[in-house]
Amino acid sequence: MIFKLEFSPYIDDTVLRNFFDKPKGTCLDSSSAINITPTEIQKEKGLYLTFWLIDDNVLVKYYGEKVCINSLCVYPGVKSVIIIPLEKHMTSHDIKFRLSEEEVNSLLLPYV
After folding, report:
1. Which segments within 1-112 are labelled E, that is strand?
2. Residue 70's closest CA among 82, 85, 59?
3. Are 2 and 52 spatial neighbours (Cβ–Cβ below 8 Å)?
4. Which of 6, 64, 85, 94 could disulfide-link to 98, CB 3.0 to 4.6 Å?
């Protein structure tokens, strides 16, 4: 599952960095969650827009597939959370080894 997470530009930098470190009580607390935001998007949007991938198999194993991504919206400073509808199931292996950063960038760019 890939989703887009957008933060308010008024969020405190310390709070934002703590979120990226390991926010407790969210699916991002899982070691299966990786930030897949391409460098080009990071440079353009800074830390206020980021894309995450969570391995579906790990979600089922540790969370019983009952995770509500929208619950991230209750975290202070989170503006919106949108699940990216992909035609094909993406795994962390695809993102890390099969796709180039340019391919990941073109995949996510329409959602910026």
Report:
1. 2-7, 33-35, 49-54, 78-83
2. 82
3. yes
4. 94
What residue type is 8 in one-letter code?
S
Sign of CA dihedral 83, 93, 17, 29: positive
Q: Token pair 């579906």 is at which residue? A: 56
Note the pLDDT of residue 100.
Answer: 86
Tallying the residues shown for the chain, one arrives at: 112
Q: Which two tokens stand for residue 70?
A: 């929208």
What does the pLDDT read at residue 72?
82
Contact indicator for 16, 47 with CB cutoff of 8 Å: yes
Q: Tell me the C-alpha distance between 23 and 78, whole Å.
A: 12
Q: Domain boundaries in the chain?
A: 2-111
Tell me which residue has tokens 């997470």.
5
Computed over every residue of the chain, the mean pLDDT equals 82
The residue ranking higher by pLDDT, 29 or 82, is 82
Whole-number Å distance between alpha carbons of 39 and 46: 10
> How is residue 74 written in tokens?
């209750």
